[in-house]
Amino acid sequence: MNVLQAALPHGVRLEYALSGPQGGETLLFVHGLGANLRQFEPQQGFFTRQFQVLLVSLRGHGGSSAPARPSPEAYTVRRLARDLVALLSYLRIESVHLVGNSLGGLVGYEMLELAPERLTSLTTFGTTAELHAPRPLLWTQLTLIRLLGPRGMAWLVSRTASRDKAVAAQVGRMLRMASRDALMNITRNIADYNYTATIRRSQLPMLLIRGGLDREINARLALTLDAMRGRPGSGVVDLPHAGHFANLEQPAAFNKVLEEFLRSATCSGKEIGKRSP
Known about the structure:
Elements: E1 4-7, E2 13-19, E3 26-30, H1 41-47, E4 52-56, H2 77-91, E5 96-101, H3 103-114, E6 119-125, E7 130-132, H4 135-160, H5 165-175, H6 180-189, E8 192-194, H7 196-201, E9 206-211, H8 215-218, H9 222-228, E10 235-239, H10 246-249, H11 251-275
Parallel strand pairs: 3-4, 3-5, 5-6, 6-9, 9-10
Antiparallel strand pairs: 1-2, 2-4, 7-8
Helix pairs in contact: 2-3, 4-5, 4-6
C-alpha cells in the first residue's frame, strides 16, 4: 500500500492511500475509533477493479497528525468531517461513495449535513444513528482510556474486539497507533448524538450492513432502522456471522453486499442526473 500525507489548511496532516482508475467514481472508506486506514486493505484490493479507492486515517489515528492543542473541540465529529472535505478538495475529488465503520459512519452522517453534494451514497456498519450513553458508562470508558492509554487499550481490545482472534489482534495493532487525546476526546463527543432527522431529510442512497454478532450496536438500532424505513434506494443487509468489524471478519460477504449496493446506487445517481434540469 502506497501511503501518502496531505497537509490540510487546519494544520493537520492526514495519511491516505489512493489507488485504482482515475477519472471514475471514488469509494472512500472511513475507519472506526482507534483504527486507521489499514482496516480497509481487504476492500482496497477488491474494489480497485471498479473504483478509485481512497483510504484515510482520521486525525490522531494511524500516521495522521494530532492537533497541536488537543481539546474536545478539536475532535468533534464535525471537525473530522471537515478534514475529509478538505482532503477531497486537496485531491480534487468532487464526490465519493462513503463507507464508514462505527465512528466512520458518524463522520458520514456529518458530511451528509455539512456537504451533501460531496456524497454519492452512504454505507454504514457497526454504527447507530442515535445514541445517548449513560453517564456511568461514559465515565468508565474514559477512565479505562486514561489509565491504560493506547497500548493498554490495544491489549484489551486484542482480546475482546472480535471472536476472530486474527481480527481482534489486527484491531489491537491499529489501536496502538492512536493518540490518547483522540481516544479521550472523541469518546466524549460521541456519547450523545442523534442523526435520525438527517437520515429522514436526505434522498441519498444508503445501506446499513448489520453484523449479527455486533450485539451492542444492534441493541441500539431500532430508531436508525425506523428512520431508514421506506426510503427509496436504501436498505439493510444482515451478515449473521459478522461482528463490529464486518469488513475484516467476513470480507468476501461484505464486499459482495457492498458491490451490489454500489451498482444500484450508481445507476440511481445516473438516473437522477438525467432528470435534473
